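Protocol step 4 of 5: obtain the predicted structure for the target chain.
Materials: sequence only (see below). No template structures provided, no constraints applied. The aim of this step is simply to have a reference model before the mutagenesis design in step 5. Sequence pasted as it appears in the construct record:
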Amino acid sequence: HDIALTIYAANNGKWRMMQDCSTLASAQAWILQKAGAGQAYTITITKSGSGEVEPLGTVYAASGTNLEISVGTPTKLYDNGEDKTSAVASGKYTVASVAANHEIAVVYSA
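Step 4 output (structure tokens):
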């Protein structure tokens, strides 16, 4: 389920922010990051081929949390350029104890 989150400043404020988040955790982490109330990291998930990936795109994760990504059975999965295909279990890959930004690439071959 997508969560559309729009933040407007008070009547005297000039800024507006809008972010589409795929999970409640992603929305919470985004708020923390923008409010400066805690550390949050971006995790960008891309795919190549015809498999299903959820979430897909850029999500936010609060420091120390886990992000579970449904990937099915990919040919390869890379996390920050490192082959993590063997870490896929039951069709899911987990970024555990998030402490940095991640770029996840999920590859499916025909």
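Step 4 remarks: The helical segments are 24-35. The chain has a mean pLDDT of 83.
Proceed to step 5.
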